[in-house]
Write a structure and sequence with these properties.
This protein has 248 residues and is mostly beta strands. 10% of the residues lie in helices and 34% in strands. A hairpin with an 8-residue loop joins strand 12 and strand 13. The radius of gyration is 19 Å and the shape is globular.
Amino acid sequence: MNSMIYFFSPLIMLFALIFNPGTQDVKKSSVCDVQFTKQKPVLDALWDKKFWEGSEVQTLKNHMGSMPSHFPDTQVKLKYDNNNIYVIFRVKDHYTRAVAKVTNGRICEDSCVELFFTPGADVSRGYFNLETNCKGVFLFEYHLKNRTKQGFVDLKDAGEIEMSHSLEKNVENEITEPLTWTVEYKIPLSILSKYMDVDKPASGVRWRANFYKCGDKTSHPHWLTWAPVEYPTPNFHLPEFFGWLEFK
């Protein structure tokens, strides 16, 4: 081996560890503690109900692309039990739109919140994306082997997700005044294991994840993220930037 290359190799490796987002740990701000629950909640999209007491509130403070003129206040909370992951989003919005009416439609074009997650600590195993518009219509996909194998979660499996939403208005025509909306859902762990390996949530288990808010076809489009995503154009399918879910 060339002596000069041998000398600089450790420096090159150190540089890669520091600057390669796929190898470095995420910032502490991108860690969400997920508490265990013995309660069986009624899914009614109520943000302040007793079930969610003690849950960390995570706020989406980052964006992709240019700074949007509309940056809706978006927050999320999670809990889990032996069989399910529970999620609730709250959005203080303007310019609210929901045109999609069928599962796996063009959800991201509406006022939409998204949970992308790897059910374990290593994003190379793949990830899921669950995208939900303000009316509770959703898209659910899986991605394996660097997205060379991917598809929609089977409709029968997707049908096991219980979903609740606060918004009852018709929003095919955009609502331009201020509007707060919530969506709450339950993901059964049993359906996830049909598509990839799952580290069952328990104290000390860690998953990778990111939360997003978008509205591609609203009058004020935006692409917000929880964990920062360093990429020049909006793209949520970058698991190397996922933060951490830490189950307690």
